[in-house]
Design brief:
Distance between the termini: 36 Å
Number of helices: 12
Shape: globular
Strand content: 15-25%
Bound molecules: 4-hydroxy-3-methoxybenzoate
Helix content: 40-55%
Largest sheet: 9 strands, mixed
Radius of gyration: 21 Å
Structural class: alpha/beta
Length: 390
């Protein structure tokens, strides 16, 4: 055997031994929550940790006779760090479930560890379509970029938007958004005339926006990850794009509830598609938003918080169903097919794909009671990830 293969085999054996040992050892149920708590994606970590803690405060920390322990680790959104932390959590801390994952590369870097140790990996944030295919132990409670992008590409041409330039972060979810938006727009008789990609780390939007100005499309379609939307919005307005008659349309990651209020009037009227708005008018969501704000000094929950909150529900329900006696395979089986009402609306975990099926809403930024909100004005129900159809 090659040295590398031997090391991998030894590691796989260690991971498996560690995870099965963990089962019988004590009466604890450990959730290893790996998130970006510092660095460019820190808002995502803050939202998800707060949501997980809210879930536990509301639902207790004893489930099926087990004491639930949340172990939070900061991966600074560096995938090598995510992988190392996941390995330590499985081998040393004997976690029963791995969860979190702020960005796609972190989720996929952990996939081999989930597979080898037979530990469910609950992806609460990352949203590239293919993530769930990286391991049969991955279950997702966030969303996918194809899921929300096709809905906007159906809306646009019916609303005077035919010629579009796309601008996305140059990695998994951005490439998904670009591809699925473009294909669907073309199918609907529209056209993407140019596809621009900006780096994920410290992007400078100015030169790209200048290109868009010169191209004079009906609209600019944007995807950037949570936390980066305010910068795009600011530069879009500063460069007078809206005055030049170019509309901004985007996935809801751009008009992120975490930052929306700071974006100011420049954001008014921007139409986006997404699976969650803090303004979603349901009793369940009202309760969720109020409780979240109360527990976090007025911080408004965003779509990351909802992915974390629902992820905790999926884990708790699986623990209940297996009566605290299940290993990774039993937990995974109990996660598949779960159906429930989320603050975002009705959802289920597709048993075949392990991905979330949910409503996708069209929303417009409006000012209400002095605050900016993504106000939903239309909905497409039970949208499956289009990336899985092939
Ligand atoms: C991803 C997708 C990350 C959408 C995001 O924010 C987001 C990802 C941190 O898959 O990396 O809004």
């Amino acid at each position: 055997m090659h040295k590398r293969t031997m090391i991998q085999a030894a590691l796989a054996a260690a991971l498996l031994a560690a995870s099965s040992l963990g089962l019988a050892q004590d009466n604890k149920f450990r959730i290893g929550l790996i998130l970006p708590m510092t660095g460019q994606q820190a808002t995502t970590g803050r939202q998800i940790e707060a949501a997980a803690r809210l879930w536990m405060a509301q639902n207790g920390d004893t489930v099926a006779g087990k004491k639930v322990e949340l172990i939070v680790k900061d991966d600074t959104s560096v995938p090598d760090v995510t992988r190392r932390l996941a390995q330590e959590l499985v081998v040393n801390e004997k976690v029963n479930v791995l969860a979190g994952f702020g960005i796609t590369p972190s989720a996929t870097a952990t996939a081999p560890i989930a597979t080898q140790s037979k530990t469910p990996e609950v992806v609460m944030a990352a949203a590239t379509s293919s993530i769930t295919e990286a391991s049969p132990y991955i279950v997702r409670t966030s969303f996918t970029l194809p899921q929300v992008s096709v809905v906007l590409a159906d809306w646009a041409p019916k609303n005077g938007i035919k010629k579009v330039v796309t601008l996305v972060s140059d990695y998994g979810p951005g490439i998904d958004a670009e591809k699925y938006f473009k294909e669907r727009l073309q199918l609907n008789g529209g056209q993407v005339t140019e596809s621009l990609r900006v780096p994920l780390r410290s992007p400078d939007f100015a030169p790209f926006l200048q290109k868009v100005r010169d191209a004079k499309p009906d609209a600019l379609f944007v995807f950037v990850p949570s936390g980066a939307g305010a910068a795009v919005m600011k530069q879009f307005v500063e460069r007078g794009m809206d005055k030049a008659g170019i509309r901004l349309i985007a996935t809801g990651d751009v008009t992120d509830d975490d930052q929306l209020n700071e974006m100011g009037d420049g954001a008014l009227g921007v139409v986006t598609s997404h699976h969650y708005s803090a303004a979603h008018p349901s009793a369940a969501n009202k309760k969720f938003v109020e409780a979240f704000e109360k527990a976090n000094k007025g911080l408004r929950p965003n779509f990351m918080a909802v992915g974390g909150y629902d992820g905790m529900r999926v884990i708790y329900e699986a623990l209940k169903k297996t009566q605290g006696k299940g290993g990774g395979d039993a937990l995974l089986a109990a996660m598949k097919g779960q159906i429930f009402e989320s603050p975002r609306g009705p959802v289920y975990i597709d048993a075949q794909t392990r991905d979330i099926v949910q409503n996708v809403y069209l929303r417009k930024v409006e000012r209400k009671n002095g605050q900016l909100w993504n106000v939903e004005f239309d909905v497409v129900k039970d949208v499956k990830d289009p990336g899985k159809a092939k």
